[in-house]
Amino acid sequence: MAFRLAPTSASEGFRLEAHDSVGSTNALALDHARAGDPGKLWVVSKKQESGRGRRGRAWATPEGNLAATLLLITGGELRLAATLGFVAGLALADALDAVVPKGRIAIGLDGASQGQNRFELKWPNDVLASGAKLAGILLESAMLDGGRFAVAVGIGVNVVAHPRDLPYPATSLHALGAACDAETLFLALSDAWSENARLWDEGRGLAAIRKRWLTRAAGLGGEVAVRIDGNVVRGVFETIDDDCRFVIRDDDGSVLTVAAGDVHFGAVASARI
């Protein structure tokens, strides 16, 4: 089966560029933007040679996994564009719900899960299944002429394989017993993106996105540790605020709002990290 867009996505003017292998779908998408591409372009591949995650970390995409980047061109606020990562998380979780048979995925995040979703969203950019990382999301941007900028919404999913030498648990759809392939998942993702992007509405619907995201939030109400610039803050994950920043309450009852950091839940949060 070849990669293809959902009919809803194609009807809204989205385009598709599929590759057998790429260096990085994000890098390729931003190169297209600098060359004048108008955006609404999905760049997808089942193999990525030099993918990357947050803070320059490597993201492996062996043959059969999904690397997908949506290129968008906007003249709006970069602050609002940054919340597209939450749109992407919701779209991917919806797509996974659509293509993975019910009963295939167990629920649980080291005692911190509410147990209501097979696929949970870990702030700010991960999708979890059975408490392990299944997918990651990376937003990158580039300034263009005329006050516009390009946003590459990168989505990497462990479909057939997952790394095993990580400091946190990871998994793949196949390891969880799901037979879905990258092409089927992307078809559902392109459809789910359109629905969630309409809800986001260029940032005007961010409150609705935040509300939806919280219903899928991993670890909400549980013990959490956040590493911020080398320091570790511990407390309880209370919510995300109106700008989708992470909000924790420490043991003294003080509230801390975090814009960027590495989050750990449950027993990991209690251990030395």
From TrEMBL:
Record field: catalytic activity: biotin + L-lysyl-[protein] + ATP = N(6)-biotinyl-L-lysyl-[protein] + AMP + diphosphate + H(+)
Organism name: Mesorhizobium australicum (strain HAMBI 3006 / LMG 24608 / WSM2073)
Keyword annotations: ATP-binding, Biotin, Ligase, Nucleotide-binding
Alphabetized SUPFAM superfamilies for the sequence: C-terminal domain of transcriptional repressors (SSF50037), Class II aaRS and biotin synthetases (SSF55681)
Enzyme Commission number(s): 6.3.4.15
Protein name (database record): biotin--[biotin carboxyl-carrier protein] ligase
Top-tier EC class: ligase
GO MF annotation, one: ATP binding
Residue ranges annotated for the BPL/LPL catalytic domain, each copy included: 15-201
One Pfam assignment: BPL_LplA_LipB
GO cellular component term, pick one: cytoplasm
